[in-house]
Amino acid sequence: MKFASLGSGSRGNATLVQLADTLLMVDNGFSIKETDKRLQRLGVSGDDISAILVTHEHADHLGGVARYAKRYNIPVWTSHGTATMMGNVETLQCFNSHQRFDLGGITVEPVLVPHDAREPTQFVFHSADFKFGIMTDTGSITDHMVDALSGCNGLLLECNYDRDMLLNGHYPQSLKQRVAGDWGHLDNQQAAELLQRIDTADLQHLVLAHISEKNNTRDLVLDTVSQAIPYDRAWLKVIDQDQGLAWCTLTTDINEQETTHA
């Protein structure tokens, strides 16, 4: 199993998960032209995508889904709540947010999260050998999230904002309250707390995502997370909004796993 990102942040999000011939896209907040360009950098195209899964209806995650799915005739999977916000998508299919389901050899586990959307979910992807989790756009930590993410081999985790930067920044008070609320986003310290609560012993890749361009910095994220878990700062990965993230491969080779933690 391997994963990559087309970009992560308020200007657009999309993640790829691949196992053999199955290629899943999680969210798409980009135009068709931009999506094609970013996919090309990763060596794939819209014709290769088996399905698009949508976490929730906010534009930076949903904005490009319908047009891209129509262009390439890709099935779109969402929760029933998110489906009510999708409009007319011919290939739309709904999943039960409390049940796992299979897509081309990948078992998809929806994870309900507290966010200001209609039935928002994040996902954990399972194969016979690997477990990869995506956790962004959630305002607080739940026991359900902790259980779902424990034991992942790869994890893409939101570190949206630094609390001091947000509170002292230029956002309107209402937006500050929304972002920092229990139904908003995870700050750096909350992300670190979540990592301390889950079993990270099998992590091969930890990717930090959805970083605010106005209320956070790469260095603050890396400093906070590296102080919270027993992995070297240089081992951590941060998704760039414009450049995305190159393919990260999960492996059963113990020697390769040890090398990645060095």
Word description of this protein:
This protein has helices at about 30-40, 60, 65-70, 80-85, 145-150, 165, 175-180, 190-195, 220-225, 255-260; strands at about 1-5, 15-20, 20-25, 50-55, 75-80, 90-95, 100-105, 105-110, 120-125, 130-135, 155-160, 205-210, 235-240, 245-250. The strands form two sheets. The chain has a seven-stranded mixed sheet. A seven-stranded mixed sheet has the order 7-8-9-10-11-12-13. Helix 8 (about 190-195) runs parallel beside helix 9. It is globular and about 45 Å long. Strand 12, helix 9 and strand 13 (about 235-240) form a beta-alpha-beta unit. The model has no long low-confidence stretch (mean pLDDT about 95). It has about 260 residues and is an alpha/beta fold. The two termini are about 20 Å apart. It is built from ten helices and 14 strands.
Q: Distance between the terminal alpha carbons, to the nearest Å?
A: 22 Å
Whole-number mean pLDDT: 95
Strand order of the largest sheet: 6-5-4-3-2-1-14
Q: Helical region count?
A: 10
| Strand-pairing-aware structural class | alpha/beta
**Estimated radius of gyration:** 17 Å
Low-confidence stretches: none
Overall number of strands: 14
Give the SSE order as H and E letters: EEEHEHHEHEEEEEHEHHHEHEEH
Residue share in helix: 25-40%
